[in-house]
Automatic annotation (TrEMBL):
Name recorded for this polypeptide: ABC transporter permease
Family, per entry: Belongs to the binding-protein-dependent transport system permease family. CysTW subfamily.
Pfam families: BPD_transp_1
GO biological process, one term: transmembrane transport
Taxonomy, superkingdom: Bacteria
Length: 302
């Protein structure tokens, strides 16, 4: 319906002015960039700057010192950090082994109308608090939990398994269950850009399931796999709730080290650990983008 009268004409002119390429409306497209700059890039930059500040009794003061990095790399904290790196790598491997085949199955075996609904089922757990989801694993993994009771009841074991919880294995299990949906979602998003004729061509050429998976599916979905890998690995380093709830005595990851440093009012140390994590993330992102070109995850293959 066209605007009538002077008022309607004025509103029409105002609207066209707002949405014009050179109008004020173009500023809306810059808001995400401004938001990311203010609340992401600037804090990261301050983290690097504050990591070389001098510690005071309750805060820190401007200066340049690498004492915080020395406290991190020349102490037992680096061992906890390296253990969390190993845990993160194990989490990524298990998430890939469990999650990516699910994404391939959903993409290849389900009708198009049901594919997005199936992927949504793996996203629904994120609507529940992380604390609740992790704490709910205790009665499942414990000595008298569901898994041990089922294994003992079936006669497969004689005594409860002690390594399912409050151990590094328990931490990996918690991280896999926390981040598995990201592997499913990113894998499906990458596979969604692959046309169906690729799979039909592999079948016509007599390529087996394993060969098709290794030589065709994984290379085509590499950008999505890497995006999920980076997200899972970085978050497994920083999510301190998992070792707190499912790890044993003294269990810690990089996030735990940062929280402990803040509790001790050693803010430069906390910033130094955070800076190391940021540097690791940037290096991995650059390497992965150079190898796989992450932008291809949003582009269909032709």
């Amino acid at each position: 319906m066209k605007a009538s009268g002077p008022g309607g004409a004025g509103r029409g002119i105002l609207w066209r002015r707002l949405v014009a390429d050179d109008g004020p409306g173009r500023l809306l497209f810059y808001l995400p960039a401004v938001f990311m700059t203010v609340f992401f890039l600037v804090p990261l930059g301050l983290t690097l700057v504050w990591s070389v500040f001098e510690r005071t009794m309750f805060w820190m003061k401007p200066g340049f010192t690498l004492a915080a990095y020395g406290d991190f790399f020349l102490s037992g904290r680096i061992d906890s950090f390296l253990n969390s790196v190993q845990s993160g790598l194990a989490t990524v491997a298990l998430a890939f082994a469990l999650g990516f085949p699910i994404a391939v199955f959903v993409r290849r075996s389900l009708p198009p109308a049901a594919q997005h609904k199936a992927v949504l089922l793996f996203i629904l757990p994120f609507m529940i608090s992380e604390v609740i989801r992790l704490f709910a694993l205790r009665p499942v993994l414990g000595r008298n939990g569901i898994i041990n009771d089922a294994l003992i009841g079936s006669g497969l074991i004689d005594a409860p398994l002690d390594w399912l919880i409050f151990t590094p294995t328990g931490v990996v299990i918690g991280e896999v269950l926390s981040f598995l949906p990201f592997m499913v979602f990113c894998g499906f998003l990458a596979m969604e850009g692959v046309p169906d004729y690729v799979f039909e061509l592999c079948s016509d050429l007599g390529s087996g399931v394993v060969r098709t998976f290794v030589r065709v599916i994984v290379p085509l979905a590499a950008p999505g796999i890497f995006a999920a890998t980076l997200f899972i690995f970085v978050n497994s380093l920083g999510l301190f709730l998992v070792p707190d709830l499912l790890g044993g005595p003294g269990a810690a990851n990089a996030g735990t080290l940062v929280v402990n440093a803040i509790s001790a009012l050693d803010f430069p140390l906390a910033m130094a650990i955070a800076a190391v994590m940021v540097a690791m993330m940037i290096v991995l992102l650059l390497i992965g983008h150079r190898l796989f070109d992450i932008t291809r995850i949003l582009q269909p293959y032709r």
